[in-house]
Structure formats: structure tokens, C-alpha cells
Amino acid sequence: MSGNDVELLTRLLAGEQQAFRELVATYQGAMRAVAYAIVGSRNADEVVQDAWLAVVRNLEGFQQRSSLKTWLLTITANTAKTRLKHNRREVLLDDLPGPHGSVGGERFAADGHWQTPPNAWHEDSPEALLSEEELRQCLEKTLASLSEMQASVLLLRERQGLELEEICNLLELSLSNVRVLLHRARLKVFATLEHFEETGQC
Amino acid sequence: MLSCKELVAHSSDYLDGQLSLRERLGVRAHLAMCRHCRRFIRQMKVTQGVLRKLPDAAIPELDVLAERLAEQRNQSRQD
């Protein structure tokens, strides 16, 4: 555990409300992504609520062998799996088209070279791109179009910085599945950025 | 020699450090010669940066939830 974790844990054990606020603000997004992957959008919020209660109940017994984040995400995954109980939903690798497509086979000639190569983007820093309100909304749409597994894997990797192995363990997916989900999701987001840079529109 | 299509197929694994040494060298050799793929990889990195920097969605009732959790913790301390 990091020094920050130790300090936060001490304050949590003392029941300090501000410490719980920090905990929720920092980790709720990652917990929701885990719940979303396992139980889907309809039950994700409820699972996160239940997971928080389990966290408080078990705070005393937290062994500190893992990071606080890993512990919270493991509790969330377990809570979600208990909720699910049976039949893992068959949504693992479904691949709906993103609103702006992907980078598919049609972009390449028969010899495998680019037929439609990527154009230069007007903006190539994330900050400059995100300063466009319309693009932010467009990205929200693309993220909403991803399957639950794709969206969760993408968020856990890119926003929460989890290692691929951690994602495999939490979501009980093989490494190759995680790699495929992540790649397909990234290409769809790429296609949205490319479309916006070319047309100026979502 | 990798084709551009294969390079794109390997791009996420390249960015995530999931390629073997031989595969990684193959990607690097291709990138050294192909400006389209260099641009593609650069823009994939920008895509990652955009995802990392997207503003977080607000957590509804953050304070209410924090208060409830703190209360529960304090109750269990007294039990």
C-alpha cells in the first residue's frame, strides 16, 4: 500500500466523513466500470452501492497486502458476480458498429498497404481536441455505443490505468479477449476523432 | 515484413507492451519506413490521451453517500 493509502485508511477507520468523500470521488468511476462489465447498465449502480456497504463493513479486516484500489475493485467484482449468480451474459465480444465506424479492412488495399491512410489532424494534443464541446459530446456518444465489456475494459485501462492482467482477473476474461476488446474499442474512438477532424462535425 | 494492415492489427498490443521482442522489432522496422503508419500510431497515442483526459462524470449525491458511509463506519465502531 502507498503512503497515501495508509493515511486515507487511518482516516476511514476513524469514521471521518471527508475521507469517505475522497474515497468515493477517487474510486467510484473504476468501481462502476467493473460493475458495468459484469452486470450491465441496469444493475451497475445498485452493485456499486452494495459494494460500498461491503467496503465499510470489511474496512477493519482489510489486510493491506494489496492497494486500496485493488481491494475496492475486487469487492465490487465479487458483489457483481454474486448478483449475477448464474449465466454469465453472452456479451463478451459482441461488436456493434461505432457511430463513425472503425479502422476496418476497407481502409487497406489487397496487398495490406493503406488505401485510405490517416490524414493529419488539425489538433493533435488531447487538451486542444477536448476544448471542443461538440467533440466531447461526440465521444460520449461513441463510448455509449460500445458494448458494456468494451466500454469497461477501455475505461479501466485508459482512465484507471489498470494493467491488462488486473482487468483479466477482475472481469474473468482471458488476456486475448481483453486485448481484442481494448483494440476494437480504441479503433472506434480513433474513428470518431478522425471523423471529427476531417469534417468538423460529429 | 509486416503490412500496414497487420501493423494496425498489432497497434494496441504495441502500445500496451504486449508484443514479443521479435514482434516489437517488426513493428519498429515497419514504422521506420512507413509514414502513414507512423501517423496512425501517433494518432492512436493522441486517442489514448484524449480518453485519459476526458472530464469525469459527476458522482450524483457524493456528499450524501459519503455521509452515510461515515455514519455506518461510526456505528460499527460503537458496536
TrEMBL record, chain A:
Pfam families to which the protein is assigned, alphabetical: Sigma70_r2 (PF04542), Sigma70_r4_2 (PF08281)
Stretches assigned to the RNA polymerase sigma factor 70 region 4 type domain: 136-188
SUPFAM superfamilies: Sigma2 domain of RNA polymerase sigma factors (SSF88946), Sigma3 and sigma4 domains of RNA polymerase sigma factors (SSF88659)
Keywords of this entry: Sigma factor, Transcription, Transcription regulation
BP term (GO), one: DNA-templated transcription initiation
RNA polymerase sigma-70 region domain ranges (all copies): 23-89
Record-linked InterPro entries: RNA_pol_sigma-70-like (IPR039425), RNA_pol_sigma-70_dom (IPR014284), RNA_pol_sigma70_r2 (IPR007627), RNA_pol_sigma70_r4_t2 (IPR013249), RNA_pol_sigma_r2 (IPR013325), RNA_pol_sigma_r3/r4-like (IPR013324), WH-like_DNA-bd_sf (IPR036388)
Annotated GO MF terms: DNA binding; sigma factor activity
Family annotation (NCBIfam families): sigma70-ECF
Family to which the UniProt record says this protein belongs: Belongs to the sigma-70 factor family. ECF subfamily.
Protein name: RNA polymerase sigma factor
Native source organism of the sequence: Aquipseudomonas campi
From TrEMBL, chain B:
Lineage: superkingdom: Bacteria
Domain Putative zinc-finger span(s) in chain numbering: 4-38
InterPro entries xrefs: Anti_sigma_zinc_sf, Znf_put
Pfam families assigned: zf-HC2
Protein name: Zf-HC2 domain-containing protein
